[in-house]
What does this fold into?
Amino acid sequence: MTRIGSSDLSVFPLSLGGNVFGWTADRDTSFAVLDAFVAGGGDFIDTADAYSAWVPGNSGGESETIIGAWLASRRPQGVVVATKVSQHPQFPGLSASNIRRAAEASLGRLGVDAIDLYYAHFDDETVPLEETVGAFGQLVTDGLVRNIAVSNYSADRIRAWMEIARATGVAAPVAVQPHYNLVHRNEVEETIVPVATEFGLGLVPYYALASGFLTGKYRSVDEAGHTSPRAAGAAKYATEHGLRIIDALEEIGDAHGASIAATALAWLRAQPAVVAPIASARTPEQVPDLLAGGRLSLADDEIARLRSVSEWTPAQV
It folds into this structure.
């Protein structure tokens, strides 16, 4: 178990991504994935109110609705649910009134009394940051939200949020959710990790497996093809450099009897300030590898080797 920043939330160090629920995983399959995750020791679920508005026929909130139905059906103990605001088609942006309405809508879909961890999904510079900070703080004061966090924010904006929160005496973020993995390191390590360390924020990285590339499944653009909605995202990393990373992951994983995916997640968990990488599963059969990534401990020389082989990977691909 690991603690999320300065919060009172202790979680298994791997978060199950809910972006596939209502997208590539239907209700029954999503239930099976969630059942397998909790049965295997997982307890930290990540979603957003916008998931999955991009799917034809969806309007947003489908993932939260499925998770809420699963929570009501299973009534699991100790499960931590994180969700986000700013991208739902009906609740765009981070004005105070919108944050309140979106939070109430998420609570209704999830069927919970309070959201354990509530993220500002993307920065909204059209709204004064003081207004956004105050609105999130009020949600905590009113008991709708237990802890707050930010996602996809720059280091400067995170620092500004923390300073406003301290100056006004409202609840401050306890976590940051950046795009971070072995093939997307530079930007996070150069800017986000230092500010997270400065303020004691936990990192909960998304795209922890680089859209599936770090499972080792896609070793060429042709191999990825169009077999899934995420294949194209994975295929772009199948460069000579990317494949060297896969080869190193495979060799290190073999020494532990672990998969490439579990090894990639274990490396990410070992990085400064990282609490729990986020990874999603379309089927329950994919869940054990994710859970293994939350338990596998790599030796210092193995962590260093993976750092070295991925050192020059561009921040943006």
Q: What stands out?
A: The longest strand covers residues 80-85. The first helix runs from residue 27 to 39. The mean pLDDT is 95.
